[in-house]
Fold this sequence. Notes:
This protein has helices at about 1-25, 35-45, 110-130, 150-155, 215-235, 270-290, 310-325, 380-395, and strands at about 50, 60-65, 80-85, 135-140, 165-175, 180-185, 185-190, 190-200, 205, 240-250, 255, 260-270, 295-305, 305-310, 330, 350-360. By secondary structure, it is an alpha/beta fold. The structure holds zinc ion (2 copies).
Amino acid sequence: MKGQIWKLVDEVADFTVAARRRFHENPELGFQEFETTAFIKKELEAAGVEIVPINMETGALAVIRGTAEWKGAGEPPVVGVRADMDALPIAEETGVPYASKVKGIMHACGHDGHAAILLGLAKVLQKLRPHFAGTVKLFFQPAEETLYGAERMLACGVMENPKPAAVVALHGGVELPIGTVGVYPGPFMASADLFKVKFIGKGTHAAYPHKGTDALAAAAQAVISLQMLLAREVEVNERAVVSVCQIHGGHAFNVVPEEVEIGGTVRCLSPDVRKQISERLRAICSDIASSYRCRAECEYTFGIPSLANDPDVTEDIARAAAAMLGEDKVVRIANPIMGGEDFAYFLQKAPGAMFRLGIGGDVPMLTHNPGFNFADESVPAGIAVLAKYVTEFLNPEGK
Ligand SMILES: [Zn+2]
Ligand SMILES: [Zn+2]
């Protein structure tokens, strides 16, 4: 099977790289991936892949059914693979010939590569149908960067009828060399919440602070105390981040302002710690406010949940990667990532895993950066590992 997969991957490699560059040159923001979606659908249709209509203007659901006879117990299995496809509001500075033609928008997170890999995978799996039983669902998901795309797609019922027993996704990893895959079992990416706290006092002449109550002093105290929350209240082995990223208040050098607002984000791997911080953040801000004779209005918004990789699915991916790329190309990632990823919502519907596909070259790159570019050389490895994972999962003899 390994040789057969590589042969098919090699056949689609040029097409997939061209598709990747096409997406790169024509980037579209979340929920506006019209051209990207049209191209994907056209290519899926040309390859004879079934597209299931969903109630979304962008994004696509493709279904490929194996034609091998299922010899395992029960119903033949279903597996899902998801890729995102949206770009970012960043002005490109890579200087590549296929650089963004759209002013102020670029693929700076590699979603051009993810979408192209999933499209290449569709073409490979369509030809591999005689070798597997059951069903593969391919999710071309819009608007990952807005963090609303996955939820919207799931609301269309894409994970039902039939329901995948596992769902996987990859993300380019600048920290890993091209040709490698990184895996991590367990909580791998953080939840991402937002908070805003308005401290309300009584404005006064700066020369007579005792005539008012100082919302600015309360806010300043809160900024420091929120770090003490991590240092003194969260268990030391837990990973969590509280970052205050905004502070607004005051208009004049000689007026104590009436209101000061702070805002920021909370990142956690554990849902329990997330709950703890959300509750204590409110309490700390309102207690500090009252100790300064002010009051606090706190808005805490729960964003994406943390992303926890299922250990069994992770091992299946590691095995597929070892088979296709070599044992030495499978990297056991040491630490989770405190960034967020809305694939976490898919993992609330079925066990699954996100793995990292090495795209790190000689030049160090950062995602969400004007100089970022996905590595074309990593595309075949991405398709091959996913094809191997899917065909193993759906192998006609059962697990
Ligand atoms: Zn991103
Ligand atoms: Zn991304």
